[in-house]
Automatic annotation (TrEMBL):
Major localization class: membrane
Family from the record: Belongs to the peptidase M28 family. M28B subfamily.
Organism domain of life: Eukaryota
Location of the Transferrin receptor-like dimerisation domain: 621-691
Upper taxonomic lineage: Eukaryota, Metazoa, Chordata, Craniata, Vertebrata
Protein name per UniProt: Transferrin receptor protein 1
Domain called PA: residue spans: 207-265
Region: Disordered, residue numbers: 1-33
Function recorded in the entry: Cellular uptake of iron occurs via receptor-mediated endocytosis of ligand-occupied transferrin receptor into specialized endosomes. Endosomal acidification leads to iron release. The apotransferrin-receptor complex is then recycled to the cell surface with a return to neutral pH and the concomitant loss of affinity of apotransferrin for its receptor. Transferrin receptor is necessary for development of erythrocytes and the nervous system. Acts as a lipid sensor that regulates mitochondrial fusion by regulating activation of the JNK pathway.
Subcellular location as annotated: Cell membrane; Melanosome
Gene3D superfamilies from the UniProt entry: 3.50.30.30, Transferrin receptor-like, dimerisation domain, Zn peptidases
Domain Peptidase M28: start-end pairs: 358-559
Amino acid sequence: MEGDNSQVEMKLSSDMDEETGGNGAGEHLNHNSNRKPYVAQKLGRTPKNLCFMAVATLLIFIIGYLIGYLVHRKKDLAPTCDDSMVRYDDGAVIKTGAAPLMNWDKVKNLLAEQVSADKFDSVFREFSSDNHRAGSLGDEVLGEKVVKRFREYGMKIWTDEHFVKVQDAPASGSNSFSYKGKEESPTGFLSYSANGTITGAVLYAFYGEENNLRLLKSRNVNMTGRVILVKTGRISFAEKVANAAKMGASAVLIYPDPSKASIGGSTQLYGHVHLGSGDPYTPGFPSFNHTQFPPINSSGLPKILAQTITLDMAISILRQLGGANAPEEWESPNKLGDDSDAITLRVDNVLREKKIVNVFGVIKGFVDADRYVVIGAQRDAWGPGFAASTVGTSVLVELARSISDMVKNGGFKPRRSIVFASWSAGEYGSVGATEWLEGYLSSLSMKAFSYINLDGVVTGQKYFKVAASPLLHGLIESTLKEVNSPNKAGSLFSEFAKDNMESNVLEPLKLDNAAYPFLAFSGIPSASFRFTSEDSDYLYFGTTLDTREKLNAATGNKVPQLAEAATRVAGHMVLRLVHNHLLRLDVEKYNKIIRNRVVQINNKVHSVLRLQPQLLSKVLTMQWLMSAYGSYSRASSKLATDIQDSNMEDIEMCRTLNDRIMTVERNFLSPYVSPRDTPFRHILLGSGPHTLQGLYGHLEALRMDHPEADAKLFRNQFRPRHLDHPELRQLTGRGRVVS
């Protein structure tokens, strides 16, 4: 570290990092080992030297015998996870660095004493800002406030600077479009859109999902060169644009969902359309200052134009569309549009380089200080961003204060470390967080065992939703049973998850969630949760209407109470992960998911063989996939058995078992795809043709005889190449997954 500027040393081997104890948290959490060189001298065969050699040999034998005797005695008195010091004999007390095990009920009570809804109003005021876009002065000021808070709590602090490229609105202030003689200039924009001017016929496509566009194609609707008009919701802006580009469209216009009429007819929308995360101009590499990389762009950058428009603008276009009626399935009164509905769109976004700063504070563990959970929240927003960033940042600093005080004054000693992170450039696609992951990927994958995301934790009060790695589902369930609901008497579990947690609480982790790159890119088990009033995203995300007043209306003026509950949820999860002997990660949770995917693919293969037998050869077999599932199931069961048979009071045994648990998620990352072309490499929860879901989708396309389906390509993707097949190797791991 040099001043506030971060430096990075690029290493070619993660093994080297493991040896030296370096880690992705700026080497603030080292677990070092000391090595001393030795010097050998060649001795001559003189009588004097031979005598010395005989005496030395005898001394070495005696010393070795004594060491062996002492080691044998100390084995029975090995340092345990429960003791901060151990007594090897009547006169010597030796410190081990271990933390005494505090009763979990006492830990919960300490946290309960610290967290209060009354404290949040002042924190909200401190971290509220009308203008704090990434890289702006407002963003920098908020970052300094976070640093000040962490310093007051006595935490170790450091910052991480990145120089990233982002697209902002044109110098003129707006892009424009012209439709049937009327020109409009929306001030909202979509970062990372292609620039230029195009003219094409408008085509209404509902939400722009793949099934929406396939339905249009099945009705012989030509999408080549068309300007696709879609509404917000269900999938991200980036996915809408990518889906349209696959169908040959020339541009995409996105407008607010009219069912959310309270957003207003003139509200502008902001967002990005990079199908990925991080700086798309340095894919797979960190954007440190003066770092030179080949001029390669992310494959997720769109090659077509994309622009947001207001609801009033969209209604004006929809009313004038001709052509056929929209499909009945859409329950929409709109027409699809025909060749006469021409529109001209001009996009002139400006590419700028910005300095962004991530802020970190750490509470060091007392046993495994170099193993840590990361909890983070984005700091920037398009406008006020009260729900998008202010609440999450407030929860972050309040939780940091609470746990710091528990350590300093409550006697709590976490076994593992806790890293608190305030990210910048979250609105551009989790840029700050992803650049940190890319900068320290090799060490983070070995030392960071979980990530908890605090973005958008409060957007309502009717529902409670969680998107997380299956490894964390058990921890989430126990947390909901321990945290009281802010709405009524009883726990969060009894209010939201009592009937069926899987259907009522759990939801998929989406591409635009800040926790997604931690899980699908880095293989770190991650979780994101929120109190919400609807299943879809918050109405005012990506607008300048995201204010305290709007959130008060959505929550019945219970924002502080809901923020308190969110702090307790995050706090219970974090404290469980750093308090227990073993990490609360259930490796057997993946058994059901793998089994379900295998069954789905097996059924789909037989369906294709019945309908299109000529497409798939006889050599196509499910045996390798069945074997892969069996291998994972046996390996996870073996780890569970090893845990039961192990001495949980042995510090080194705990560390060894925890390291085995940590490798599970990481080994679901396919090593056969490029981070440039396919950054989200997780074969179960990632995105791309390398995933099991990708194989299933390709099978469905073959069954429907879709023009884009390629039987030869599918056989190459699916055919087992002994143990070198990506999916098989990742599931069985040649014994690497959990055994």
